[in-house]
Every structure is written in structure tokens, then in C-alpha cells.
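WARN no homologs supplied; continuing
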Amino acid sequence: MSLSASLLECLVCPLSRGPLELVDAAQGNPRLYSKEVGVYFPVQSPDIPVLLADKAQAEDGSSAESLIAEWRERARIIEGSQHA
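OK structure emitted
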């Protein structure tokens, strides 16, 4: 199981809109990693990335709720400053 390079180039983190890196594919547990946010998104068989914030996991394997809340607040602030 592996995502095509062309698909991977098109995918972005739904929180930061930054790049995602495919990790753990060789171990049979492919995930997409957002270095900017520090969360992993699962990849379901066959090669379906699940880019939903509530499915993200923090680097330590726990729920990413606090990281997600932080990124949503940042996005709100940025959006507000663009409309000022």
C-alpha cells in the first residue's frame, strides 16, 4: 500500500494547509504526517487518506484535540487580520 507521488503532492494538512509526509508505509501502517502541526492522519486501505481533524493523532499517539484547537484559533486570528 502506498499513495502515489502525484497524489501526495496535491494533499495538504487540513489544519495548516502545509505539506504532508507519508510515514510508516513500510511497516504496513501508512500515515500522513504534518510536521507543522505535529499530527498524523490515517490512511485507510486501499490508499485512502483520512484528512479529518477529529481523526488526527498527536505525535505521542494521543488525541490531537488541543493541537487542533490551537490551529483553529490561529486560523481565526489570521482570517480576522486579513479582513481588517
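The chain has a mean pLDDT of 85.
OK
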